[in-house]
């Protein structure tokens, strides 16, 4: 835990997606505290639809090996589709392009280095060296969108609870590309769908991409105010 209490604003604005971790396990009491905080996330009709599997130790290593093997054999098994082409040709695609370019640049990889970029992407399946990973599963109600929203709120609460305790995490869409492998490893029923995973632990201050940071667009690009004057005055 940090030496002194931190404000909510500091916690929110300091949180980032870390892609390099120390191998030191997080104390069980801290993991439980993070889970207790995350359990307070809101959900539609208080259904609390999340089912969370936290994997550590030897099971973590075995699962990582299984994921890497599945990747080599091209055994992709999405529960939910993902294709950056779906972002279209506008601002969403451009934001994704800028993020990718900044990340690979932080690793010293040129755009032309396709092999280096592919190898870097596989670090997802090694959980970026994190000693723990939480997999967030959900049942399907209707089209699943509202349930996925609940899981997203749980995930953000989990990430902020990590940050509040001096820990770090990264939500990983790529872990959901191999949902069948994860379900088999963890004994999860087929009706529970894997949305994403969160690798977590202590950030490695000298690890790959340790200086990598992404900003956010100005409020005016995301927020429309209706009869709410003064909010965006002087905003950047």
From TrEMBL:
Pfam families: Nitroreductase. Residues 12-201 form the Nitroreductase domain. It comes from the Bacteria. Keywords: Flavoprotein, FMN, Oxidoreductase. InterPro entries: Nitroreductase, Nitroreductase-like, Nitroreductase/BluB. CDD domains: PnbA_NfnB-like (cd02136). Transmembrane segments: none annotated. The keyword Glycoprotein does not apply. SUPFAM superfamilies: FMN-dependent nitroreductase-like (SSF55469). PANTHER family: IODOTYROSINE DEIODINASE 1 (PTHR23026:SF90), NADPH NITROREDUCTASE (PTHR23026). This is Nitroreductase.
């Amino acid at each position: 835990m940090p030496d002194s209490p931190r404000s909510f604003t500091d916690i929110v604005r300091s949180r980032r997606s870390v892609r390099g971790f120390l191998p030191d396990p997080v104390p069980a009491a801290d993991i439980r505290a993070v889970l207790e905080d995350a359990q307070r996330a809101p959900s539609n009709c208080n259904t609390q639809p999340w089912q969370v599997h936290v994997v550590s130790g030897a099971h973590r290593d075995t699962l990582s090996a299984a994921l890497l093997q599945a990747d080599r054999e091209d055994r992709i098994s999405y529960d939910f589709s993902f294709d950056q082409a779906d972002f279209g040709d506008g601002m969403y695609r451009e934001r994704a392009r800028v993020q990718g370019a900044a990340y690979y640049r932080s690793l010293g990889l040129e755009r032309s280095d396709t092999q280096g970029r592919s190898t870097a992407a596989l670090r997802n399946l090694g959980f970026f060296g994190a000693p723990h990973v939480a997999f967030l599963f959900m049942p399907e109600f209707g089209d699943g969108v509202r349930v996925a929203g609940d899981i997203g709120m749980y995930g953000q609460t989990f990430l902020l609870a990590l940050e509040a305790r001096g820990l770090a995490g990264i939500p990983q869409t790529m872990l959901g590309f191999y949902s069948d492998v994860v379900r088999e490893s963890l004994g999860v029923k087929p009706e529970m769908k894997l949305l994403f995973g969160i690798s977590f632990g202590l950030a490695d201050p000298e690890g790959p991409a340790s200086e990598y940071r992404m900003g956010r667009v100005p409020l005016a690009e995301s927020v429309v105010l209706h009869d709410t004057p003064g909010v965006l005055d002087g905003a950047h």
